[in-house]
């Protein structure tokens, strides 16, 4: 038979380097040992080659574990697990063995070892399973049967294998989790052994090694536990041994099926999938790419903390999909935070009705154009077709194309109803006909609706409910993790509970509060500090703070600054990060207050900290944009290149601010809001304001990119105004550098971040109460 190797190299492959399967081997176990006094190697059985790394797989029959090692010594003539395959029945007696029958070329570590294949007969059709070696503390041999279940000897201290047996989960919640894998027969002491099992023999006293070696006498006075023979056993605690309360988010299906609440949530999810016709069962084919799935459990809580409902969701393992075959394009409908604050400001100013909806199983409404196959969900396997697979007809959570399929389904219905899709933000839909204006915002499956006619909003919600299964939540109170609390003068946006969970996650609930998020004397550098910190925890907190900055512009600068050290943070960076958390502890009840405004105009304050970064001397540019009196957009970002002067740094920041203003102006135009006055930019650098109006300082600014000079064209066309403002009135100063406590407090209140006690009545206790 000709193989591709023969054709390519004109020779047969060399199999000399391949080792014999099942032979005795001694791997180097230093990576698995806890201290240097432990053995460097133990006798194992060679199982093959690792598929994930360049190493051998060696089964340790003493500990029932599989070791992966690149340094192994093989004894290919010795087979610890050799069997007699001749007999198919289990005789009552076994051949008598004696120490003279042993032909071992290695020094054993136990008193009882199986013989080699020299005493085995011809193989039979059935293969007996591997039988563990009997421990040395047993005086009698155990009866070993031909049962296919692996049996373990009594009084054995070996730990189970890392590969548990396959568990067939049943939807019965009363099933015992501790007896999912029970041997069919427990061995008992007997003088009889089976012919089908490996014959056990007893080594002579000269060949045997005592169970405990006398400790070596040290040359120093220090006494260790190993020298005194003191070894504390490892205590292993099983979570499944004790009942788990249903108020805990679970990760195991078998545990969830024990609770009525989680079981009902799983049943509701499964019935919704069946009602929607998500899949059909088909027999598997060899060319199918069958992906897996898992159950995800979440607790939906009310804004004040109590559990609202138990939610179970079946999620497909989309990371097993193949691009171009199982999926093509991907997209997720995510509304921009600036658009949310913009629409809320307009609704408050015009006193429109706000309504919130939540689509049930949103991704299940999308239709798939590709053929995707999935295994049956755990706990809900069809009794008549247990080996069939699910051919998906509808999208499912976890699939790569699921968000796009849902968006296309929703978009086709909303556009057919009469809405138009915004070009500036694809997740925004506008209805403007016959003096009826409605805004439709979607964030995956969360919907926010507002308009000037309550009857048209009601009709649209009824039509939407007929098409999709949704919940009408009424006036929004909790949207995308942000609490929307109505006040007498507007809406108060706060993330109080999110901050409390963040402090609890970082173990900072009892930290001492501070008045500013960053010290004015703080100097963060990229130098190699030997005092390192937990990089994973550092990155996790930074990511949480980024989401918090949606409603808290007062922490935007420290979050941006600390994000520059995520690659290798040290103790100094962690201390600065903890100071931000201490500041949040002091301002946990603060939030962004949106108020009605009569004049809907766009104004922006921009500033730059020239060469403020001590590592590369790049400048930090920032801006904050207002719609009337409400801050709706802000940004803090380090500039990509080094500026040669403060004027150049400010001029680049003005260009970035202008692009954001143009985008907001386009969104307002699509919403039907006409702005009479052109947007205004306020900068505290006189040179930059002159440069925007006139081509001055040309010789010193000729190296700038041409795209920065588009600001001049807008100013020349009266589509933009750039004015000078004193540094004391520069609101964007909060986003470029650390400030003193007095200055920081002043600018924070000017931006619109205020404490809840100053605007809320009757809700302060709710905001300051720790949910239990």
Q: How would you explain this protein's 3D organization?
A:
This protein is an alpha+beta fold and 772 residues long. The chain folds into 3 domains: 16-75; 253-474, no CATH class; 491-767, 2-Layer Sandwich (Nucleotidyltransferase, domain 5), CATH 3.30.420. 24% of the residues lie in helices and 20% in strands. The chain contains 17 helices and 29 strands. The strands form 7 sheets. It has a 6-stranded antiparallel sheet, with helices on both faces. A 5-stranded antiparallel sheet has the order 4-3-2-1-5, with no helix packed on it. It is globular, with a radius of gyration of 35 Å. The N and C termini lie far apart (72 Å).
Q: Quick gist of this model?
A:
Helices cover 24% and strands 20% of the residues. It has 17 helices and 29 strands.
Topology (SSEs and partners):
Blueprint lengths: L3 H6 L14 E4 L16 E6 L6 E5 L4 E5 L2 E4 L36 E3 L85 E3 L22 H4 L24 H4 L3 H17 L2 E4 L7 E2 L1 E9 L5 E10 L20 H14 L2 E7 L7 E8 L14 E6 L7 H16 L2 E2 L6 E6 L2 E8 L2 E6 L2 H14 L2 E5 L3 E2 L2 E6 L2 E5 L1 H10 L29 H14 L7 H7 L8 H16 L3 E5 L7 E8 L10 E8 L2 E9 L7 H26 L8 E4 L2 H8 L4 H4 L8 H7 L4 E4 L16 H11 L1 E3 L8 H5 L4
Parallel strand pairs: 9-13, 24-27, 27-28
Antiparallel strand pairs: 1-2, 1-5, 2-3, 3-4, 6-7, 8-14, 10-11, 12-18, 12-19, 13-14, 15-16, 16-17, 17-18, 20-21, 21-22, 22-23, 23-29, 24-25, 25-26
Protein name: Putative RNA-directed DNA polymerase
Pfam families: RVT_2 (PF07727), SH3_retrovirus (PF25597)
EC number: 2.7.7.49
């Amino acid at each position: 038979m000709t193989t591709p190797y023969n054709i390519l190299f004109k020779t047969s492959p060399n199999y000399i380097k391949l080792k014999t399967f099942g032979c005795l081997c001694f791997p180097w176990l230093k990576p698995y040992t806890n201290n240097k006094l432990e053995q460097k190697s133990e006798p194992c059985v060679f199982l093959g080659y690792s598929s994930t790394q360049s190493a051998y797989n060696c089964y340790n029959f003493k500990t029932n574990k599989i070791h992966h090692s690149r340094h192994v010594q093989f004894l290919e003539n010795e087979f610890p697990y050799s069997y007699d395959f001749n007999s198919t029945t289990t005789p009552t007696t076994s051949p008598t063995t004696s120490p003279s029958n042993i032909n071992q070329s290695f020094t054993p570590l136990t008193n009882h070892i199986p013989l080699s294949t020299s005493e085995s007969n011809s193989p039979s059709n059935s293969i007996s399973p591997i039988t563990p070696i009997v421990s040395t503390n047993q005086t009698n041999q155990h009866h070993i049967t031909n049962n296919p279940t692996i049996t373990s000897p009594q009084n054995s201290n070996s730990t189970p294998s890392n590969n548990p047996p396959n568990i067939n989960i049943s939807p019965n919640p009363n099933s015992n989790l501790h007896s999912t894998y029970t041997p069919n027969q427990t061995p008992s002491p007997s003088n009889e052994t089976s012919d089908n099992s490996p014959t056990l023999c007893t080594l002579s006293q000269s060949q045997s090694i005592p169970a405990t070696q006398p400790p070596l006498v040290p040359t120093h006075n220090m006494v260790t536990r190993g020298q005194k023979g003191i070894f504390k056993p490892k205590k292993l605690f099983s979570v499944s041994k004790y009942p788990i309360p249903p108020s805990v988010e679970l990760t195991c299906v078998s545990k969830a099926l024990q609770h009525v609440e989680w079981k009902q949530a799983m049943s509701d999810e499964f019935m919704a999938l069946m009602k929607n016709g998500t899949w059909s069962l088909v027999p598997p084919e060899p060319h199918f790419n069958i992906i897996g799935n898992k159950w995800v459990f979440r607790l939906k809580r009310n804004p004040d903390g109590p559990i609202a409902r138990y939610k179970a969701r079946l999620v497909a393992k989309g990371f097993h999909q193949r691009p171009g075959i199982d999926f093509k394009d991907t997209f997720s409908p995510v509304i921009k935070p600036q658009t949310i604050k913009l629409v809320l400001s307009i609704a408050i100013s015009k006193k429109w009705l706000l309504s919130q909806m939540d689509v049930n199983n949103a991704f299940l409404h999308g239709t798939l154009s590709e053929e995707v196959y999935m295994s049956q969900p755990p706990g809900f396997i069809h009794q008549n077709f247990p080996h069939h697979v699910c051919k998906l007809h509808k999208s499912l959570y976890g699939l790569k194309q699921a968000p796009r399929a849902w968006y296309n389904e929703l978009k086709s219905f909303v556009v057919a109803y009469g809405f138009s899709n915004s070009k500036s933000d694809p997740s925004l839909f506008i209805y403007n006909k016959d003096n009826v204006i409605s805004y439709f915002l979607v964030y995956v499956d969360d919907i926010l609706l507002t308009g000037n006619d309550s009857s048209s909003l009601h009709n649209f919600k009824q039509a939407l409910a007929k098409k999709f299964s949704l919940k009408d939540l009424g006036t929004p109170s909790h949207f995308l993790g942000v609490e929307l609390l109505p006040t007498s003068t507007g809406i108060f946006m706060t993330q109080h509970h999110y901050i409390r969970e963040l402090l609890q996650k970082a173990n900072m609930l009892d930290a001492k509060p501070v008045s500013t998020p960053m010290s004015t004397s703080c100097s963060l550098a990229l130098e190699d500090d030997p005092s390192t910190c937990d990089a994973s925890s550092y990155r996790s907190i930074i990511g949480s703070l980024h989401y918090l900055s949606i409603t808290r512009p007062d922490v935007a600068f420290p979050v941006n600054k600390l994000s520059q050290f995520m690659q290798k943070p040290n103790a100094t960076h962690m201390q600065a990060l903890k100071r931000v958390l201490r500041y949040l502890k002091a301002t946990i009840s603060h939030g962004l207050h949106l108020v009605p405004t009569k004049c809907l105009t766009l104004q922006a304050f921009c500033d730059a900290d020239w060469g403020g970064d001590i590592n590369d001397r790049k400048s930090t540019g920032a801006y904050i944009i207002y719609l009337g009196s409400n801050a709706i957009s802000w940004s803090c970002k380090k500039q990509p290149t080094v500026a040669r002067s403060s004027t150049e740094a400010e001029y680049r920041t003005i260009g970035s601010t202008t692009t954001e203003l143009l985008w907001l102006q386009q969104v307002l135009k699509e919403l039907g809001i006409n702005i009479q006055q052109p947007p205004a930019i306020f900068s505290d650098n006189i040179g930059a304001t002159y440069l925007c109006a006139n081509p001055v300082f040309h010789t010193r600014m000729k190296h700038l990119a041409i795209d920065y000079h588009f600001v001049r064209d807008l100013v020349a066309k009266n589509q933009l105004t750039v004015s000078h403002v004193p540094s004391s009135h520069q609101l964007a100063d909060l986003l470029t550098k650390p400030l003193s406590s007095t200055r920081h407090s002043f600018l924070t209140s000017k931006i619109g971040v205020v404490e809840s006690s100053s605007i809320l009545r009757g809700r302060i206790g709710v905001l300051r109460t720790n949910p239990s």
